[in-house]
Fold this sequence. Notes:
By secondary structure, this protein is an alpha+beta fold.
Amino acid sequence: MAEGEEWLRQANEYVSDTHDFVVSFVHDKIPLLKVHRAQGTYLTWLDVTGVADRIDSKKLAADYNRTKPANMPALTPEQMVERFFVKTAKVHLNQGASYGKGGENHMRMNIGTSRKLVEQALTNMANACKNPVATNLF
């Protein structure tokens, strides 16, 4: 066996098991989200449409854009969801739209870390989604 093959096998197995954990956790505890299990990567694709609808991200973006200072960029509804998770769950996800067409209302979550850290992030997100109120996002 070449050097590193055993480590790589174990790392791939760990990430695969973490994906299974994420799918189960989201299904059981965060009904506002849907998770898509990616193949062969340490990234998870989350459909955040339920959160966007619940916090009315379209209205939040429109309200912000109507009253924003002229020198500030306009914000999208997806950015409102991103801000919601940063402010209420202390979790930063990558906006799906930045990955191309079809990414709207999706977020990418990096799970290539300890399962304990992934669990903490998901727990924070679950708590934020129990009674999602989008206040003080700026």
